[in-house]
Amino acid sequence: MKEILTYAAFVGPAIAFFLLSQIIPFFMGVYYSFTSWNGVSSQVNWVGLSNYVTILTKDTNFYNSFWFTTKFMFVAVVISNLIGFSLALLLTQMLKTRNLLRTAFFIPNVIGGLLLGFIWQFIFVRGFSSVGNLTDIGLFKLPWLGDATTAFWGIVIVFAWQVSGYMMIIYIAALQGVDSSVLEAAKIDGAGGWTMLTKIIMPLILPAFTICFFLTISMAFKIFDMNLSLTGGGPFNSTQSVAINIYQEAFQNNRYGLGTAKSIIFFLVVAVFTTVQVMITKKREVQA
Question: What is the mean pLDDT of residues 120-133?
């Protein structure tokens, strides 16, 4: 009994907080997704599967936002992990300034997405146009946030700039855990740099790839604050993420039940993507 009370004293508050902040609101959301509640009134009308039918058959904006978010996720995950892994390889070398560079590359991850969006909005709109006028370089004269294609890549650039440093730290930790004797033995056997990287180093740090892919997939899917402050979903909803679509449906259109139904569908899709990714990469870990 003493042990049980001791464990309960330490774990109980955390469990209670998790239940109150995560589990209970989740099941309440599932319930409200079957209602036509507007989020304000005390009257909650049960509508069954009507919200889900409306979303899946009539809501083209939701489909468009889902298509944009899925494209963004694939591109952002590849670029973020490629940059993060490249920086990790560079900063595990014997550089005098490697600690300073690690800090510099990690700092963007500390800045909030909302603030980051406003900073880069100023850079894209004012900074790039000024550089373009001075240098006459066409790249800086593009309407970065005023065109659907360039706005998409603008969001990708900002996202990768923010999260690559975080991925870099995880990859650095994994690279530092690789047994140096294995690498020295490979060098003695005549293995080149590319062979060592693809045949030895990468298979040994596959758990880090599993973690980084999981994190970047979930973060890219759930992008909201950066997207909201950078483009607001524009121009003409061409860069509207699913999270913004749900927010507008629930809190601007006052259709809380419909917005919650969208969030449940979104949750299921993200869960499927991340679960499949973890299963595939974990299987590769075992094979390696």
Answer: 90
